[in-house]
Amino acid sequence: MQTLLLNGDDVDxxxxxxxxxxxxxxxxxxxxxxxVQMPPKSYIDLPEYxxxxxxxxxxxxxxxxxxxxxxxxxxxxxxWVNVHTDNPADHDLPTVMGTxxxxxxxxxxxxxxxxxxxxxxxRTGAAAAVATDHLxxxxxxxxxxxxxxxxxxxxxxxxxxxxxxxxxxxxDLDEERVARFIDAFEDRFDVRAGSISEAGHCDxxxxxxxxxxxxxxxxxxxxxxxxxxxxxxxxGKHELADDLLLDATVVIDDHEQCTHSGEINVxxxxxxxxxxxxxxxxxxxxxxDRAGRVGVDGDDGITGVTVFDSTGLAIQxxxxxxxxxxxxxxxxNGYPFDLLGLAE
Length: 344
What we know:
It is a single chain. By secondary structure, this protein is of the alpha/beta class. The protein folds into two domains: about 5-120 and about 315-335, ornithine cyclodeaminase, domain 1 (2-Layer Sandwich); about 135-310, Rossmann fold. About 35% of the residues lie in helices and about 25% in strands. The strands form two sheets. Strands 1, 2, 3, 4, 5, 6, 7 and 16 form an eight-stranded mixed β-sheet that branches. The protein has an eight-stranded parallel β-sheet with strand order 10-9-8-11-12-15-13-14. It starts with a strand and ends in a 7-residue tail after the last strand.
């Protein structure tokens, strides 16, 4: 038995976005039903190198649906990721690099070792798509994106899987990044540069910036805009103004992570936003225990502005890794090697 090695290009090729979205929705379902083991993300701080390591292990079981003849599955893995801000200038390396080890839960055999950076982008886009599918208006055709970095690409790719996106408005202070984004998608969408307010008045808005001073206020979004707040992943990061969060219906992925390092972490720590201002977790909406934009059991659904605070969960990485591994294995992609020296 051999371990499959998958680099960034392999992950990109084998992460079929529709399957990744379904897998991430399954992960949220499993989490809500208590069918996961996911220890808190652990950090190793390295101030002498202006960086840190983060480990994200998880195991999850997704039950099948006999009525639809859908088989259940389980998966396990760990992502080892860093944030070293001096890397680009001092070492010609990316700020963030990740490695995913995907294992067989029954035997613990390492089925695959894959690039975790590309995987993170795919599962982050998929998480936004799941939230958009449940929280955006059904006829959403326009998407605004604030921040034209690498995460912006999978936001569009994934959200376009769940809504018929036609118009895209991208806003970023870096004109070259905006130009690259437009060049990548102009053959598929009506995509143009615009202000934050122009992007925010689209049906759906994804914010993917690392800012600590809010850049999107209540006046920058439409009456029914759904906002995917994807940028905050550490204490102090904060893209959306407090007034916007307080006026909106706020949905989170995980209470502990979001209050510690998600979009709501700053106003929550200050007591400006409390648990009473949090509508619920996305898993509750996915399984139908809480209404999304469409109601449950005939009740009216959410109206007005909605916000999804996504910190990124280890179960999302594991779910996406399963999709990548199985597709690659079925199609003889990647590089098999005898990691454990067990081949005869």
